[in-house]
User: Fold WW domain-containing protein from Hymenoscyphus fraxineus.
Amino acid sequence: MSPTALKQQITHLISELTTCYELCATIPSTRKLGSTHTSFDGLYTSLPLTIQTISAKSATLRKVIGSRMDLGDETSRNVFTRAIRDVQTDIQPRLRNIAHPLPRDRRSGEQQVPGFKDILRQITAMEFDVCDALESLSLRLQASRSTPVPTSTSVPPYTSAPYKANTSQPVNEPNPQTPRTRKPRDGDEVLVNIKELTQLLEHLKASWVEYSSEGRKYYVNAFDKTTTWERPEGGFVQSMPREREREREIRRSTTVREERPRRDERERERIWEDGRGW
Assistant:
């Protein structure tokens, strides 16, 4: 089999579809169409798009996968074989009979329905099958590339050696009463379950860090550093250090102003209780 078997099939199919397009271009000059011929217009405009789609799909996947796309596999080659056969044995003969009618058909004067809509439906289904076969082939080739291929290793023949008991050091028998110890984790490692991890991720996505540049404040998402916002609504916002100090100072001064009248009131009550008031 040729190493470019699938590539040759793609070229063959595009050539057959190009012949169909040329036949469609001949039909208006050899066949009298009705006043409304939307089905023919749809077929005539869809054929170049189908050719372009198949060609672009194969070229793009060829760049991604490499030369293995040229060979393909049995599944993909069967799809293209069936598509080429349908175009050669069904679609092309029908278009050729419409483009070049026999003389007896001209003399009969009978109005025949060409069936452009049915031909367009066949070509659309064929385009879907062919593109799907190319995408499925690329996925199979990528999967085979990522799967490591086992390599054969030579195993040395088994040779028995005389056993020598080592009596110089005592053998430490495992104590069944001693609990099994685990490898200690690092100080920054924490074991969480899936639910806790999901909650932590949601918290990160709803958290924002405040920054300032050229007198303008903006907020960066804690989960996705590329996401910025003018002023996020809701969530958790970490203000800049100066802003946090300013907020604490405002709260502290407010507390002092509220606490001072209370101290004065308590002092007046204490004076009256001691009998030193008026």
The chain has a mean pLDDT of 78.
